[in-house]
Design brief:
By secondary structure, the chain is of the alpha+beta class. The protein has a domain at about 15-95 and about 440-705: Rossmann fold. The relative contact order is 0.12.
Amino acid sequence: MRKMLLAGAALAVSTGALAQTAKPSQATATAPRAAKKPFQVTSPNGARIDDYYWLRDDTRKNPEMLAYLNAENAYADTQLSALKPLEDTLYRETVSHIKQDDSSIPYLKNGYWYQSRFDTGANYPVIERRKGDKAAPAQVMFDQPAMAKGHNFFALSDWSVSPDNRLVAYAEDTVGRRQYVLKVKDLTTGQLLPDTITNAEPNVIWAGDNRTILYVAKGPTTLRGYKVMAHVLGTPAAQDRLLYEEKDDTFQMGIGRTSDDRFVCVVVQSTVSTEQRCAAAAAPTAFQVIAPRKRDLRYEADHMDGRWILRTNLKAKNYTLMTLADADVAKGTAAWRDLTPASDSVFIEGFKPFAGFVAIDQREGGNRMIRLLDAAGKSLPVKADEPAYRMALDVNEEPKTDWVRYTYGSLVTPTTTYEVNAKSGERRVLKVAPVPGYDPANYVTERVWAAARDGTKVPVSVVYKKGVKRDGTAPLFQYGYGSYGASMDPAVDPGRIGMLDRGVVYAIAHIRGGQEMGRGWYDDGHLLNKKNSFTDFIDVTRYLVAHKYAAKDRVAAMGGSAGGLLMGAVANMAPQDYRVIVAQVPFVDVVTTMLDASIPLTTFEYDEWGNPAQKPYYDYMLSYSPYDQVAAKGYPAMYVGTGLWDSQVQYYEPAKWVAKLREMKTDTNPLLFRVNMEAGHGGKSGRFERYRQNAEWGAFVLQQLNVAN
């Protein structure tokens, strides 16, 4: 998904080679202008002229393209130079709110306690384990600070320990393109095995023989995970055995083990359909389909207590839980039995089976909460004390326990990890995420409901520092996303505290296109209803201004990825409502991207945005696509960010958009384009690096909102 917190061609050059061919330009005070080179983009619904299509270079080696991107970076450097002291101050403030030597809570799995820890000043954690006891000597599994040395980008993603606890398979990316390399380490010796697999998804599991790893191979151009392969240690990767191939390019895939470790499962899913097939983990060869794919049927199945438990939308728009006996799998959905009733107000987000009960992750009234369901059907809801909050199931690897770990947080309360007893309801705090120099008592959080133009009430999470007057003079920073059914939950962010302390009101607009209010909330914000996401965001802004949370001329907005599409649409539809907009890795060239099936994610997302080969969807996309709707008018001040190696939203989408804005816009407001030449969709790697980038645009935002340093 084109997410900020999840499109392009095959990687053709390393970052090292790029660094030699693309030297930074000299700083300039003049805004760069990209050359116009008319190019005809054809489609089943006609042709369009795209003057900046030439900025697309799948090799990322074109000297003219690189020169333009470097000129944009040089221009941004010049324009932001006066804000460098403020940027440094914001960065120092943020880092001061981060505990330098923090550790995660240990969790137990298969006889070992696993934990990660950050050393002071380190960008990456060390992952270690202890045998049998949390106080036992630590065995370092991954020394990530050492592994990252010599790389401009580093990401250790999925890792999996063999059933006999001797080996660990893991996925590593040193480019940012999400083309992972799978490796295997012997934990008894600390040595790497010669086995190496390239261009894989960060998704790897072990079969029961301790010699076979299962992984998902990617297509070389689309980067679509489409094959489940079995690799036997000590054999060439070219001899890996194909277990399953997904031929339908509108589906994406993943693999995993059930909670009781009895089965290995392959899950393929699209926006509206799921198909899961499972085999015995001891010898995963004969896979059985839980239910064949069918449009508008989605489900996920886990196994515990000798039965399957399924989260599904079968006869339940907001999802329900059902059960299936092992002996009845071949009977299909007719054999599924209700475990929970369907609800119009409660949306089941997920679940985790334990021996004797099920923990349910659900949403109601815009908040995410936990409910425990015992074998007799009795529910135990976990309560909260704030109007806007988020609970979520945490790491629960041992199913034979009465204790369930979950996290709780809000825009005021730092993330707190609890465990609750499923039998007694007793709760105990395991950890409060440390936020040095921060006192929750100094801040206020609210949940308000803004009326959209069609009468729909949109939930909004708001936070501000005590003492900020609600008199219509405060600056506002509003965030939104609204796509893929992804819900934006409140949490304390160390990078936001400096903004709050300067009197800025912060708001999350839980607009349609997410699932904060259930599946219908998503349905009303995608495909031919997509514009509801944009108008909801604008109407939330107008509500907050009208109710004197903020001044009309002191409003900032931010979104990333598909939320960057939101920013682009809002900038076109209501530029007068915003003083400054931040759009990170923005998906702004909707029509051209969705017409190109070679771009990663495109074919997966026809049921998210529509297939532009069909005229109704083509016309509707074209009517809101930010790049296509740029017009000769005034725009807010804007900061746009991208990564050259982004595989989810290609760098050339924002590059084209910025070039066209420079050509068309009639205002004199600053337009800055920051291109990270050594990163992908998530920006630079490392825990402090993103805060450095955030400090840059944060300083720009505060300047535009006329907030004192």
